[in-house]
Each structure stands twice: as structure tokens, then as C-alpha cells.
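Contributing: when you submit paired examples, paste them exactly as shown. First protein:
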Amino acid sequence: MSRRLNREFYLLPRGEQRALILLSLLLILSLLFRISIQLLPDRVPGGLEEFEQEARLMMASFARADSLQEARNDSLKRNGTRIPGKSSISPNFPKHTRQAAPVNINRADSAQLLPLPGIGPVFAGRIIKFRNLLGGFVSFDQLGEVYGMPTETIERIKGSIYIDTTAINKVQLNRATFGDLLRHPYLDYEDVKSLVNYREFTGNISSINELRKNRILPDSILNKIDGYFDYSEPSPGMIPSGSSVKE
């Protein structure tokens, strides 16, 4: 209660604050006079009646001032004007917030990722590291594969990022070496061996449908790597270094 009164006091104009302080002093002096009268009934202070009359006039003037201030505030509210000393904002003046532009998750650096909700330096570094291993993100669901990334954080940042698939760094499947393919996080040693041996047998791989039709890799793997391979043919005479794998 006292905190609210203090806050309301400091919101008053300076003139009203000084007048309120003066009135308080007058009331205290009046109380002291009354006490002196009761304790010393034979010694009535001179000028007490005039003093009380002045106090009543001051209180009446303050009451009129309060009435005028309330009427002014009501008028300001009706006109949609902000009332001085008040923190509230009229509905006619909505608060506008500037929303940051979505971040391109496949091109962003650490500085651009840090403002995202729930993303600190550690997660920003992990996102970039995993993105570089993949060659880029093709789906929001892949963020769940970033080590330690909470599902709640992914849901929070979805509205603040977007995926640009033109930024994917694709693997040249018909030119890549065994080591190049093995660096991709979705391919293990046996997967790469199957791809390289099939490529060695056929010469070139034309599409992922060719791999699917010939059952070179499981569908679960093919679905994950779809979009990460470039099937263009190598230049004449170009043979990928270290591409074949001997049984």
C-alpha cells in the first residue's frame, strides 16, 4: 500500500507535490495546536481560528484542483491522448514491434544464429558443423540430428529461419572418391562400398531412382541422401581417384 502511495505521489506535478507537503505540515501544526489547547486550556494560542480557516481554504482549493485534473484526464482519454505521468498507452496508439527477418539456415554464420531463441554459441557452432558435414539442410527435421538440440528449441526457431535448398553443396557422385563419399554423415563404409562398386560396374549413375531400382542401398538411406548428389557425368577420360573398392 505504501509503495503504491509513494509511486502515485511522485507521478504528481511538482507544484502539487509541494502543496501536498505544505498541507501536511499545516495539518501537523494544527494537531499540535489542538493538543496544546487540551493540555493548557487556560492558554489559548492567538491566531488559531485564523490558522484553521486558512487550512480549510487550502484544502478546498486542493479539492477543486483534483476535480479539474480528473476532468482533464477524462478528456484526454476520450481523445486518445497519452496522460502525462501514466505508463499506460491508449488503444488508439498500439505499440509496434519490429520483427527480425528470417535467417537463411544454410548460409548463416554464428553471429546470425545467436539471436535465435534458445541458440547460444555452443548450439550455433554445432548447427554450422553439422550443416557443413551434410552440405546443407533440406528439412527442418534435420535440426533434430544436431547433437543435444532440444525439440522445444527447434519448434521455437522454426518461425525465424528458412531453408534455401539452392545453397546445398552437392556431392558429385560420378566423380567423388571413396573418401569423399565416406565423409557424408548419412553414409557408412558399407554404403559407400556398394555405391563405388556399382559405379565401377555401370560406369555412371544417372539418378537416385536407378539406385532405388537396383536396390544398391536401403530405401531408408536413399530417402535421407536424396537431394545431396549431383549425377552429372565426369569429363571424358576423368576417372575418380581411389574410387574402386576391391573385395
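Second protein:
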Amino acid sequence: MRGISLLLIGATIASCTTTVGPPTRSAQGQQEFDRLVAGKVAGPPQSCLATFNTNDMVVIDDETVAFRQGANRVYVNHLQSGCNGIASGFNALVTRQSGASSLCRGDIAESRNLTSHLTTGSCVFGDFIPYTRRG
């Protein structure tokens, strides 16, 4: 009986793990991503981004957003589980921050329909990957 219990616990834990790979993008989303990171080099992931850097957000696809910081730096974030419909323009991304001065990995965002204002989904921010122009 104990063996069956351990097997069930192991199967439950294994079913909770997912392999995170690069997001599947539309051609338009890939072009936007390429345009934003052109001539820039990826730096080490950061767990938080100061809120003053979050004013210029670009939606690349339902799983990826970018925050522009001038012409020389952009922070790319791969949302965990995606916020359905934000790339279509029918839904907006509404963030909930854990701290007052930064947006961090683990913070929750909701997708809300722009017409009905109903929540259509939610997702979690991952690491913020800075892409900086070398010069």
C-alpha cells in the first residue's frame, strides 16, 4: 500500500512540472521581437524591473511582453501560462505588483476585455531579460 502511495505522489509531482521552451510566435510577433532586440545583446535575467521602466510596454504575443527603456535597452518578459488575447488588441494587460516600486517575477497580471472589462485570464511574470545595444 505504501508503494502505491509513493507512486501516486511521484506521478502528481511529475504532472506539475512543465518544460519551458521558447514561445511559439506568429510571423508578426517574431518580426516585432526581432525589431525590438535588433543590434542588442541579452544580459543576465533580472527578477524585478523598476516601475518607472514599465511605462512603455510592447505586447509581442500572448506569452511575451517587452518594456522599452529609451532606444538602447529593452526588457523582455516571457509570461508564464500566457494572457490570452493580449496580442489581438481586444484584451489589455493589467498588472498587480507585489511592491510599490517594482514589477517582479511572480507578480500576477490579468487580461481584461477592453469592451466588457471582464477578466479573461491571468498569467505570472517571469524574469526580465535586458537587451542592451553595444556601443
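If you have annotations for the second protein, write them as plain sentences, like these:
The chain has two helices and ten strands.
Residues 22-133 form one domain.
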